[in-house]
Structure of ABC transporter permease:
Amino acid sequence: MALVDKAISRGWSMGDRALERTGELFATLLEGLRRSWDVRQWWREFVEQCWFIAKVTAWPVLLIALPLGATIALHVGDISRQIGAQSATGSAVMLGLVREVAPLASALLISGAAGSAMTADMGARRIREELDALEVMGINPVHRLVTPRLWAASVVGVLLVSLIILAGVAGGYYFNVVRQGVSSGAYFDGATLLLQPTDLFVTLFKAGLFGMIAATVACYLGMTCEMGPRGVGRAVNVAVVAATLLIFTVNYVITTLYLVLVPPRI
């Protein structure tokens, strides 16, 4: 009985700690957004972070999007050929890329490539007590360091969406038109058959939000990591996993609400 009570107590303690860290995470996000209007304080760091994030994600995005579009076109084209609707492959490729693949791929790359670097950078600053030094000088480290990273990840996430869609459409074009013999006109005509303007707006919104979520998780875990190199390495691993889970959860909620509010075109 004592072991059961101890296990229950430990479970409640872990639950309280998880809720506390979740609250601190959202507080970090809100605090980072609160001073966004003071652009003069963080625009230089914002430009540097935009360049860094774009540099580490641009080529991986192309390498991921091309085979993704090709894979979708290959499977859908094979099925549609059996029912005599090969021209529908362009619609399936474009619909999948715009609605789900593009924002998720952008967010996961930002979380894995740029987010891990942000966590390591913040953790190194914590170990060197740079964050404490900023507070001693009367500078809020969240405003100076987190705010530009939030907006940089959000802006680059939105920009990467267009690159992913173009690369995915190119990969789908190769397999559907070059390999499977569908005409170019049928492929591109079907590409816009099922899409609506709101699909693109929601995709851009999700890409910006997911980038901001990835940057928030990375910065928060870096700023609160355990002291020492081991603590930084552990924070990097946790940041990537936590950001991925949070992004997929938010994506499910947004997609569900969107499909209810805006029924798909048939």
